[in-house]
Here is the input.
Amino acid sequence: MSGCNKLTESGRRFFLGRSALAVAGAAAASTVPQASARATPALARVAYPVSRLGNLRDLKVNEPMDISYPDADSTGVLIKLGTPVEGGVGPDGDVVAFSNLCPHKGYPMFYAADDRTLNCPGHYSRFDCEKGGLQVWGHATQNLAQFRLRVDAGGDIHAEGVDELLYGRHSNVLA
Amino acid sequence: MAYKRNIDRLPIPPRDAKVNSVVCHYCIVGCGYKAYSWPVNRQGGPAPGDNAYGEDMRGQLGADSAAWVAPSMYNVVRQNGQDVHIVIKPDHDCVVNSGLGSIRGARMAEMSYSTVTGTQQARLTDPLVWRYGTMSPASWDDSLGLVAEVTRRVIEEQGEDGLLVSAYDHGGAGGGYENTWATGKLYFESMKVKNIRIHNRPAYNSEVHGSRDMGVGELNNCYEDAELADTLFVAGANSLETQTNYFLNHWVPNLRGSTLDKKRSQLPNEPHAAARIIVVDPRRTVTIAACEAEAGKENVLHLRINSGTDLALFNALFTEIAAKGWTDKAFIAASTSNYDAAVGANRTTVEEAVRLTGVSAEDIRKAAAWIAEPKQGGARRRTMFAYEKGIIWGNDNYRTNQSLVNVALATGNVGRPGGGCVRLGGHQEGYARPSDGHVGKPAQNVDELLIGGKGGIHHIWGCDHFKTTLNASEFKRAYQRRTNMVKEAMDSVPAGDRAAQVEAIMRAIRAGGLFSVDVDLVPTQIGSCAHVVLPAATSGEMNLTSMNGERRMRLTERYMDPPGNAMPDCLIVARLAQSLERSFRAAGNAAVADRFQGYDWKTEEDAFMDGYHRHEKGGEFVTYARLRAMGTNGFQEPAVGLETTGAVAGSTTTGASPGVVVQGPAIEGARGREPLQQAAPNAGAIGAPAAASGGSERILGTKRLYADGKFNRPDGKAVFAATQWRGLQAAGKQAEKDSHRFLVNNGRANHVWQSAYLDQHNDFVRDRFPYPYIGMNPDDMGELALKPGDLVEIFNGNGATQAVAWPEGGLGRNQTFMLFGYPTGVQGNVVSKATNELVIPNYKQTWANIRKLSDAPEAVRHLSWKVQEYRAQT
Here is the structure.
């Protein structure tokens, strides 16, 4: 009985299993009777809209801009951190965007500029905007949903995806 | 980057999804959850009529929504042989948590065994036996047959003292009334095993003997008392992280002032305000930060004592309150004894306490006033006293515990609304066993026996000493040496030759070897030394009953199958007992064989009826059918009757000492007329127990113990204790302190349940804590040239361990705080073997030196080292 081997194995299987899960969800969805034989088959992942959040020139270092994505009911913040971070975009690699609804109970969080964290007044959870939304401390069972960004040649910042389930939704994109 | 699941939608349970009541099987609070399960090929929809929640999920849900499900609350599991979707989400109708889910409990679904999603694949699925130099799968009959043969042979050669046992004694996962009864019946009724210990300490003893010996059971109030108190007094506990939803759902509302209406309504004839809170802790915790954010700094008093000096502080508070005349004289006269002697014996001036504790005189006097100064108009101040591992695993456990109960009794705060003197708890509780009187007091230090070469066989039930004991370095060395002797012996003869195997094992045992049998959910560290490993089922894979920190008993219904061939512990016990019976009978010892009869349980419910129902106080009223009907709210033990009969068993009891029942009328004259006391259900006369009808009538319980002013002593009076200060009590602690730089305080992190036995196999937690952290003062880190995340060694004469350094401004110079019981760095390695006189370990007062091992390992480079505590927006 080797705990180490087992650990490695469980990690690998977890990865495979969770990938399979998205497919399982899609399979379940496809069992819903279709109105027409020509209906578009369901996709494995939700289709995210591409939304313009703002332009690089609108951003001031460490001053969050209120945004929403993928729709108006899902609020978030767009931040130019001033130092490059993993997952940051823009010429300085320092622009990130996060949901600002706490993934514990959905309270809107505030940005603490002094340590670049999002903080929940409901139950005190804290998420690090410089570490991909890692929960510094808190009650959420996931790290904070980050919006995937792209910057175009004109400096416009576009959101095009989310990496965790957003609070308050069974699907990140609502029909 | 931070770990993300990249799950962007989840299935919705259809309207007809199956719903089961679930109580979180992790911490003492026992939050209510509901499990929704439905066939894999079906799903519901977001319209309110199309889902099991009856909620409209078509748009963005608001905060605190009852319908939102995080990915961690979802899985695909096996139920009656079929794969089903499952959602386990917090129950908004449970009075304990009101829909709150902690970072631990809200992962119950993800922490379940699933061959479909691959979660918890480390779970044990088959009995394993040491064969061919590795652990190999075996049948139950084969593995238990070997265990029974070796157990019998050891008992024949060494007597029952040759059988050493480690067994949980609690509720929740790896526990519960069914399983503690079964193990108790085996070791205390069929046998009289005396060399037995509990999961987190080296002997079979109470962590709170001190309180019990005074006549005060340790879980004597209800969670609502935290909403009613004028002052909360908390010592050695970090409740935001360790009793999370008790703190959030019952303390915080009082600190915010949002329970004022309830206070005025239940306690009408006295002034009320939002609660103030006193926290005794050598370090600043996230709990203190949260209290300040809610109540304002002016209503939070942090008594930052020198580690281990709680007793001196409590004696000074006792002395000060007595001197001011802020005691409850009528209560002391009617319900207690030995008050004057204790006041004399414990007299400690504020100045002495300042010298010992390091707390200012002003703060000590302020604490005394917050605890006991009468309110405007002369009404008695209601203070709830709560404590946990800082006291329990702290210096001079017995006396320190008693010195706090002294203060609670002197101020009349036991058995009354807004009061209580309670441990906060770790696990849920679930103790139902035959008498342990033969074990003795002090009990045997089983770890010392194991280290010292005593005994021949070790039965382990859900314990991992390698992670959660003191003196762990030496323990591991000795345990590996002794069990290896047996492994080598087993390897020397063919595995299939049972007779030769047993002879080889016995020869090794006679030479100082040890045969080890480990029953658990997952492979453990001590299990790596075992010769037989048996797979157990956990809560939800079996029906399981436990009680929480306010004695609230609920049934977690079975909602999924155990992995593979795993079984509930109680049924493993039954089969082991039957194997022992066969073994003794075959050996011609019918008299001993007969003692292992009475285990013909087919289900865990059979074990419950044999144990709790037949033997526990109030158990005659409690059945699965009734518990099922009472859902996640259950009732508070002890049961005193049914709704159809009214209260027929009035009493006061801790529930911890069956048979200790003090009868007599309530003495309202001495207690004042408490509105709740008049309505208390336990005011009825003692009567004949109601027959168990098998129906689903509601069970009547007991909101508070001792509401009638009678305590668990022969004369019904709680006895004040003499608790003089005697420095660092455990042998060698003062010398250890004097010769090492850093205090290695230790405890829990919010993310992690217990020893991470399941969390170590959860990607979310393993990503956050690949190694345990040790919080250090930033200036100390600077002196040692440590950067955040650097790997350090903590070492002293007891052993050494590792952790990654996390700068924490809330720690004083030369003080550290290390995550306890973690698999990749065991704090117990550096804890000395010294205990108190009743063999309670002293984990908290540990001193060691620290040196850098390496720069931050790759696994922690993506992590955040920012301060943990929350600060309100300015």
Notes: Chain B has 28 helices and 30 strands. The first strand of chain B starts at residue 18 and ends at 23.
